[in-house]
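Recap slide: IMP biosynthesis enzyme PurP C-terminal domain-containing protein, sequence and predicted structure.
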Amino acid sequence: MDRRVESNADEIFRLGSPRELIEAGVNPTYVITGNMPLVARESLLSRIFSLGEKVVEESLNLFGGVIGAFCIEAVVMDSLEIKVFELSTRIVAGTNLYISGSPYSDLMQKQLSMGRRIALEIREASRTNQLDKILS
């Protein structure tokens, strides 16, 4: 899991009041400049995992299943409602492409990046004659 860092929009509130910002010609922009790993609030975890399970279930219904890493991009509202705005069916920052990118990266094995996890799953599928189940 990660949080997008969006140029000055994430820190603009530290620069001054809205009036001061307008006078200085500073307007919020939302250019994505990076990503930061994060730990989700514990009470949100079951809903977050449920979203992932729903993606897998619907992909099975629609086209035989998603193969590989995916990332659900969402916003958590003040009410703690999760609003999904995009599904990325590829390795992106939220899939923890970096080693120990978040505490969740270490669930299966310590120091396991997304690339290494995929390699391990391919190796295991090959060893058990199940490559047809994971490759398209």
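The longest helix spans residues 45-63.
The chain has four helices and four strands.
(End of recap.)
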